[in-house]
Design brief:
alpha+beta; 3 helices; 12 strands; 28% helix
């Protein structure tokens, strides 16, 4: 129900019409301003994405290199596993059984999708239990990149990753490499043998006693 004008005041239809137009004009202006702000933000985001995609090629190459060199590792109470680059896009899976000390490396040939290699060794002799404490070994394992510049193991060279195994109780560390024949891999030939121990020694100078 329309309100009546106050006593003594004259009613003007033109005044109401003018106020209605003003309110509508303000609403339209607010809408236009909101759209303009939204388009500005959207344009800025689109420009940022485009410039990022067209950014410095050296930075993109470095990022791609980091992705290619990424490795993964995981361990449980009695088992550990880690991945490492072998050669030419071939990746190896290193597995260490804490109960037996068996260290293995499995390789899948990228050309065939079938097993391409299996190499093994046992770390118990290289990482003996600490006789002073009598504690069982507490193994940890990681992989690291390696570029062979020499050495020959029956026509093979040490692959592109080394595996480092340590006993947290004794402070002993052993490093192993995998002899890999690139020509055999290219020919999809299955390879196998023993992991080569490159180093074993104690890295902890402090003796831990209970």
């Amino acid at each position: 129900m329309d309100s009546m004008p106050a006593a003594g005041a004259s009613y003007s239809p033109n005044r109401d019409f003018t106020m209605t137009r003003i309110r509508r004009f303000k609403s339209v202006m607010f809408l236009i301003a909101g759209l303009a702000i939204g388009l500005t933000i959207g344009g800025a985001l689109a420009a940022g994405i485009y410039l990022g995609s067209q950014g410095n090629s050296a930075q993109q190459a470095a990022l791609s290199e980091l992705r290619l060199k990424a490795t993964a590792s995981h361990g449980a109470d009695s088992f550990a596993m880690a991945t490492g680059d072998i050669a030419d896009g071939v990746e190896g899976l290193f597995c260490l059984d804490f109960l037996t000390g068996d260290l293995s490396c499995f390789v899948i040939n990228p050309r065939t999708g079938a097993p391409g290699g299996l190499f093994r060794t046992n770390v118990v002799a290289d990482l003996p239990a600490d006789k002073g404490t009598g504690k069982k070994p507490a193994y940890v394992m990681v992989t690291g990149q390696f570029q062979a510049r020499g050495g020959n193991y029956g026509g093979s060279q040490i692959a592109g990753s080394l595996v480092y195994v340590a006993d947290a109780n004794s402070g002993m560390v052993a490093v192993y490499g995998m002899p890999w024949n690139k020509q055999a891999s290219t020919a999809a030939a299955t390879q196998g043998g023993k992991l080569v121990r490159l180093y074993a020694g104690k890295v902890r100078a402090l003796e831990i006693r209970d």
